[in-house]
From TrEMBL:
Pfam families: Carb_anhydrase. It is an enzyme of class 4 (lyase). This is Carbonic anhydrase. Residues 2-208 form the Alpha-carbonic anhydrase domain. Reversible hydration of carbon dioxide. GO terms for molecular function: carbonate dehydratase activity; zinc ion binding. Keywords: Lyase, Metal-binding, Zinc. It catalyses: hydrogencarbonate + H(+) = CO2 + H2O. Its EC number is 4.2.1.1. Its cofactor is Zn(2+). PROSITE patterns: ALPHA_CA_1, ALPHA_CA_2. Transmembrane segments: none annotated.
Length: 208
């Protein structure tokens, strides 16, 4: 399958100025203090999953539910970006996983940073995404802390669909170098550059 060309991303077109990804900041974004996180994310502890090759890269399909601001979203698909798309105070991470949720007509992208370290030796992700291991607990992608950023943007791949509620957890999940390599092989350098804020509000919901 031919994949979209990230070298030509300057030519990608969206019908909105509020695009994704963006540079996030714990200092400059609008800080909202919370007594506890408003996010409840549940995945079956073990589930079979499937994948398909799409022009925007391999997409994985699994079950999951997100309860967020009194709405229940269902997981539609998820995928990886080799090199994070968002950054926090100019810091980028090894990779980023995007869970795409729907609730009726609303689409929400739930993004989690992955940071590789040689000290971490578990290879859950490469076992799952490369081999035909069909049992997966998506909980491996969740950090303990659920502080998060929220803004309205687009999908980060053409056709850059607009009005996407975007939630980005601020705490990265630690992965092994082997897992980082596996993501790189399947999704080589598929990260879009950060886009201008164009005066949109960006919130940082912190429990600290
Ligand atoms: Zn994505």
């Amino acid at each position: 399958m031919r994949h979209i060309n990230y070298e030509k991303q300057d030519d990608w077109y969206a019908d909105t100025d509020w695009q994704s990804p963006i540079a996030l900041s714990k200092v400059d974004n609008v800080i909202q203090k919370l007594s506890k996180s408003q996010i409840s994310l549940t995945f079956p502890t073990e589930q079979a999953f499937a994948f398909e090759e799409w022009e925007i890269g391999r997409q994985y399909f699994a079950d999951g539910k997100l309860l967020y601001k009194d709405k229940t979203y269902n997981l539609v698909r998820f995928h990886f970006h080799d090199g994070s798309e968002h950054c926090i105070d100019s810091e980028f991470f090894s990779a980023e996983v995007h869970f795409v949720f729907r609730c009726e007509e609303d689409t929400l992208v739930f993004a989690i940073f992955l940071e590789a370290t040689s000290k971490f030796q578990k290879h859950d992700i490469s076992d799952v995404i490369c081999k035909n291991t069909k049992i997966l607990n998506l909980g491996i992608f969740l950090p303990k802390n659920f502080d998060y950023f929220e803004y309205v943007g687009t999908l980060t791949t053409p056709p850059l669909m607009r009005d996407i509620q975007t939630v980005v957890l601020s705490t990265p999940v630690v992965i092994s170098n082997q897992d980082k390599q596996a993501i790189h092989q399947l999704f080589p350098n598929n990260h879009r550059q950060t886009q201008s804020l164009n005066k949109r509000p960006v919130y940082f919901y912190s429990t600290e």
